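Same chain as my last thread, 277 residues:
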Amino acid sequence: MPTFQFEAMDATGQEIKDVIEAPSQEEAQATIRQMGYFVTKITVKKSRAAADKKKTGKGRKTFAIGGVSSKALTTFTRQLSILQDAGLPILRSLKILEGQAKAGALKNCLIDVCEEIESGATLSEAMSKAPKAFDRLYVNMIKAGEAGGALEVILQRLAEFQERSQSLKRKVKGALIYPIAVVFFAVGILTFIMIRIVPAFEKIFADFGADLPAMTQVLIAISHGALRFWYLIPLIPTAIWLFIKLVRKFGPGRYGWDLFLLKLPIFGPLIEKNIVA
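reply #2:
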């Protein structure tokens, strides 16, 4: 049964403050009037469980899909390194950054990390329980910094490493824009030819009544397939992408996929050099 906190006045005009239990607010007001009081204010008293939930930080969590972006993690690492270099306690620094973070996966992870540290865990142990934000490399670097007493130095190196990685990713993405656009338009033009142009030529060839070369017949057959199964054109790449995501959910699948990437003729050595760097 909910508890209501009320303010009222008695017949002499004296102010009364008290609490009362009732099934609803209307019944609570009726009971107070029967006591000879005039209700001026009545509110539901928050339960201790709700207050504890808010106190622990779980009430401040928001729904978030996916993990933490590398850009947000890079910014967080740089800010944490600056706060540690200034001499602030690690828990105080994390609470400051958690308060400034936007609602999302990173904020939720920082809330969990702060709670773990308040419970007696080390920073590396707390971060290891938030894999959406902090991978094994990040956690082990923090663990090494704690063991060597040089956490601020490790955080600075992590921030510099992530910033260089972000810069390299931006350059790679910028270099890939042109070839991706070319491939996209080439696929679009090829699809248009198969669906619109080839059927028109097929009618012309049919009017001639002559035997067509084998390659032309293959081209017409491909055109018929594109007309009949046009929905497979966007569906097949999407299915391949989902299959790769599913395979990478498991350890052997991740190992096999990474091995496949490293064995690619041109991109394999580039990926390997990027990982080593």
